[in-house]
Amino acid sequence: MNKRLRNDFILLLGILFIAGILLSFWFFSFKKEGKKAVVYHGDNIILTLDLYKKQRVTVDGDISKVTLEVNYGNVSVVESGCPNQICVHTGEKSKEHDVITCLPNKITIVITGGDSNE
Length: 118
Hints:
The chain is of the alpha+beta class. It is built from two helices and seven strands, in the order H-E-E-E-E-E-H-E-E. It has helices at residues 2-29, 86-89, and strands at residues 36-41, 44-50, 55-60, 65-71, 74-80, 99-102, 107-112. The strands form two sheets. It has a four-stranded antiparallel sheet, with no helix packed on it. The longest helix is centred in the first third of the chain and has 28 residues, at 2-29. The mean pLDDT is 88.
């Protein structure tokens, strides 16, 4: 009887492990690719970028200029005069609702689907 309980426990762990992998795959696969990057300075929209048009743009922040780069559906901050450079180290973003923020400059980049209702 003890061996049967052990085998049942191993089977249960295996099923839970597989279910966890499937749930993780399902969760991460439904995030859509973004089409636009909306750039805010504080609460004001200052720029909307098409993620599929290669470009490099510089915007004025509170303490320095912030340089954004759009490349093949991704957006990133490549230069900023902020002290910790967290926005630069965030890297490229491309999925809907992804956000890059430079707090000292009060610059926020939000990826959207590009629809008018977003």
